[in-house]
Amino acid sequence: MRRRARIGAGLALAAIVAGYACQPERQTRVYLEDFEGELCDGVPCGWERSTGTPAQARWVETIHPGEHALQLEGDVTVRGPGAFDTIRGPRMLLRFVVRCDPGSRLGLDVLVSDGLGTRALGVAAFAPPEWDEVSVTLGGGGEIADSRISAVVLTKTGPGVCEIAEIVMDDLRFEDDLTC
After folding, report:
1. Integer angstrom CA distances of residue 96 from 106, 116, 136, 180
2. For 42-69, how does the pLDDT look when each residue is reduced to its tens digit (9 = 90+)?
């Protein structure tokens, strides 16, 4: 009886490992902004204000000592750097850590460029009142395959502040050469 249980457990473990190894979708990190780099004019280098005043876009410490965020106050738009890696898959997973005061709204556009030009993949305005990680899948139907992230645009509206601690994008693609 004991031998049967070990064989059964071994087969179950093998099935789990095989199932994981045969997942057709793979993720590759193509963008990471953690707002921990050098500063240029009071904001992380590579970020620039498109609308608003310099005091409306600032680099601040979060509730965790030593960790930083980009703080946006009032009606302001900032544009951040793109990425050098090419997006291979038809979709991208966008995750960001954010919090906003009541009445504030934050919109995020990821600008992607390819041989046909540049277009925005947007996330509707939202405002989580407590620090939270928001995840959204962008793209679909192959519209971003072989594109490059050329910029990230954050648009903050309403009173109060929004703080963005991290922006992460992962390329989601399906492997063609799976053998399971």
Report:
1. 12, 28, 9, 34
2. 788 899 999 999 899 999 988 778 889 9
Look at residues 88, 94, 92, 82 and name the one whose alpha carbon lies nearest to residue 145.
Answer: 88
Within 13 Å and on the Cβ side, how many CA atoms surround 167? Answer: 25
pLDDT confidence band for 149 (50 / 70 / 90) = very high
**What confidence category does residue 2 fall into, taking pLDDT thresholds of 50, 70 and 90?**
low
Residue type at position 164: I
Classified as helix, coil or strand, 3 is helix
CATH number (domain holding residue 48): 2.60.120.200
Q: Is the pTM of this model over 0.85?
A: no
How many domains does the chain contain in total? 1
Kindly provide the b/e burial profile for residues 134-171, where b requires at least 16 CB atoms within 10 angstroms of the residue's own CB: eebebbeeeebbebbbebbbbbbbbebbbbbbbbbbbb
